[in-house]
Amino acid sequence: MLTVSLQHALTGFGLDVQFEAPPGVTVLFGRSGTGKTTVIQAVAGLLRPDQGRVTLNGEVLFDTSQRHWLPPHKRRMGYVFQEGRLFPHLTVRQNLLFGQWFAPRGAKRESLDRVVDLLGIDPLLQRRPGRLSGGEKQRVAIGRALLSAPRMILADEPLSALDEARKAEILPYFERLRDEIGIPMLYVSHSAAEVARLATTVVVLQDGKVQRQGSAAEVLSDPAVMPAGVRAAGALLEARVARHHADGLTELEAGGVPLFLPQITKAPGSQVRVRISAHEVILSRQRPEGLSALNILPGTVEHVRTGSGPGAMVSLRTPAGRVLARVTRRSAQALELEAGADCFAVVKTVSIAPEDIGGAG
Fold this sequence. Notes:
CATH 2.40.50.100; 9 helices; Rossmann fold; about 20% helix; six-stranded mixed β-sheet; single chain; 2 domains
């Protein structure tokens, strides 16, 4: 368990945060400039905050009131930066072994072979960083951090410098770290898709303060606290792979309701997370017929939020979980949508992107 209490003056505002990061992946989520990197640097020991106290599994990393400061190299944090920061004159294998050199004697550590296999970097071992893609560099940087036998992984927007294809390449490896290695992780992001795929706990930062803390499903389904705005709001459903069909579709079972999406590589019986964006959901008061859309979720309206603009956010409770739909205020009025009303959520199969599907964690 990581416990954090920090106060620090930043340009334009003051950072004042308190939160706990339980085992798993805790994502610091928010727009750029809200203090996320300052928090993670303070935990790593790369920045001394004006005031604060941080503990990891009961050990005090620093406490300004007691003038206690554990040096960074004694905190045993594996830090993954936005860019790989590999040594250009060393091969991939040598970069990895450099991380292993920092592992304390007697500490429980992963073997080089295990890390290489986990990250799929065996073909890269004899290359130098100059011959690696951005995604390959980040995989090596993750491996180097793992081989230092860290007590925690700190990842500061590790995908922000990558294009969409490289992000899709790296995300499954972070999922494997979460599910197979079990080292707790503090992960900085402003991407709702990354939060949906990886987070077990989400800490939302806004203007230097914690706006909300909770599970990924709770945070992503609440547009009031979405740092990226209402267009990033959506449902996060947990489902089980039921079967793969010959026509290229995978059928999921979500709370007893079938959910179809483009074929994925998960085996039948696997648990998955599926993010459904609110702006991809259509609502109907009667069960629709004659539509091309395959996914129809029956539900009950929980509430309807409206603002000063033409849009409305409708929250539905369905057997699969909470679903959000972004519609116009005119449509909400025409359908007489209000708390308690029966409704159907319609989702096109092809609107569920591959990056919105991941392991359940």
